[in-house]
Amino acid sequence: MTAVPTSRTGRLEGIDLARAVAMIGMLMVHVGPTGGDDPLGRLYALPHGHASVLFMLVAGVGVSLLAGSPQATVAGTAAQLAWRALLLLPLGLALQSLDDGRLVILQTYALMFLLAIGAHRLPDRVLLCVVGVMAVGGPIGYLYGKLLDPVTFSRVGIGLDQSPGGILHGLVLSGPYPLITWIVPFALGLWLGRHDLHAQPIRSRMVLAGCGVAIATAVTAGALQAWLQEPRVQPGWDQLILMEPHSQMPLWLAGSTASAVAVLGLTLMIADRGGHRLWPLVATGQAALTFYVGHLIALALWPRTLTAEQPLQALGITLAFTAAFAALMVGWRRLHARGPLEILLQLPRNVAQRWRSLH
User: Fold this and answer.
1) Model confidence pLDDT, tens digit, residues 221-244
2) Rounded Cα gap, residues 261 and 254, in angstroms
3) d(C-alpha 2, C-alpha 216), whole Å
4) Is the pLDDT of residue 1 over 80?
5) Exposed site from 155, 229, 259, 266, fewest CB < 10 Å?
6) What mean pLDDT value characterizes the chain?
7) Could you tell me which residue, 129 or 75, shows the higher pLDDT?
8) Residue 44: which H helix or E strand, with range?
9) Is residue 236 classed as helix, strand or coil in its secondary structure?
């Protein structure tokens, strides 16, 4: 095994760097335009439909690393995952109730952590089977629901104003980040996290395979649309060939998940070479929950200041917000081992450690 630099908390810095990339990408989507037709607009919109998938993939990797750590126990891992779910579900519902049009992913995170209590112990073969089956079956199930009830399957945010049944339906089937499709990057992350991510050959294969699949899906979508024509606006089975961000369709799902694998492989490589120069971004990634919640609250409080219709202006806002947050986290980490909200995520572990020290 090849040794690589790890963060001040013993974590692979490349994973934290990937989290930072995901956060910056989601911030770009929320700050600026994502529907531009000109080259600059299309370039700016690249994170749309990709950043959140990267965030979900890294979540799966993180669960496997948590469960595989030398200090981990079955009961302890289950308690930590359950606590994260109990914390993130109401937080996500509350953030969605800000009602500023932005869709919150934390509710789906909570559901994934609950499932991971059992799923992280599944054999590799079963996890890959889940990835393969749901990569095809999930989009078909979602589209079938959309054909039957297009109003419910219209990417409506899941907030506190909905009934428990409506919340569950949205989380599993019809919401903006439904389990039936988003289980694919999460389960693949669980599988990846079991591998030696220190090893350069694995990282290289992640980059090459991820880029290869992403390119193949884009070419396939283009060829199918040229052959079968552009799918109709009205829901129909021809939408299975869509590559539109967050369409939940198989080509988009496979392509965005593959690109997330490639980005993770690249960040693992870059973190080795960047060293302490990347610490501000690594610290940002280690405080990903704080960044995510903070940017949504900031956008709700100052929507005119923190949004823009022009890509260059939006990019400037994104960079300024990220730089300010990174500087804040560098200062914070001089005094604390984790980010503000990340301290809450570790509460069960900290309580257990304190209890053991007292007894």
Assistant:
1) 999 988 887 777 677 898 899 899
2) 11
3) 32
4) no
5) 229
6) 91
7) 129
8) helix 39-44
9) coil
DSSP, res 239: G
First to last CA, the chain: 37
Contact residues for 328 (Cβ-Cβ < 8 A; gap 6+)? none
Round to whole Å and give the CA distance between 175 and 154. Answer: 8
CA nearest neighbour of 198 among 9, 341, 10, 8: 10
Residue entry with tokens 């959140």 = 52
Alpha carbons 166 and 19: distance in angstroms, whole number: 30
Count of other CB atoms within 10 angstroms of residue 20: 26
Distance CA 192, CA 63 (A): 10
Predicted confidence at residue 86, as pLDDT, reads 96
- Global confidence as pTM: 0.93
Judge whether 46 and 313 are in contact, CB under 8 Å: no
**Residue type (1 letter), 219:** V
DSSP state of 45: T
- Contact predicate 15/281, CB 8 Å: no
Query: Do 50 and 25 touch, CB atoms closer than 8 A?
Result: yes
pLDDT by residue (tens digit) across 196-222?
999 999 999 999 999 999 999 999 999
Amino acid letter for position 94: A
3-state class (DSSP) for residue 246 = coil
Sign, CA dihedral 120-123-126-127, equals positive
| Residue 244 CB-density burial (10 A; 0-12 exposed, 13-18 middle, 19+ buried) | middle
* Both structure tokens of 272: 């080795």
Asked whether 273 and 1 are in contact (CB, 8 A), the reply is: no
pLDDT at 2 over 80: no
Residues 271 and 278 sit within 8 Å (Cβ to Cβ)? yes
Taking the C-alpha atoms of residue 14 and residue 262, their distance in angstroms, rounded to an integer, is 12
8 Å CB contact between 93 and 159:
yes
CA 59 and chain centroid, separation: 7
Tokens of 325: 């947050």
26-60 pLDDT, tens digit per residue, is 999 999 998 878 899 999 999 999 999 999 999 99
Segment 245-259 mean pLDDT: 97
Provide the pLDDT for residue 7: 39
Q: What are the tokens at 78? A: 């289950």
Whole-number pLDDT of residue 3: 34
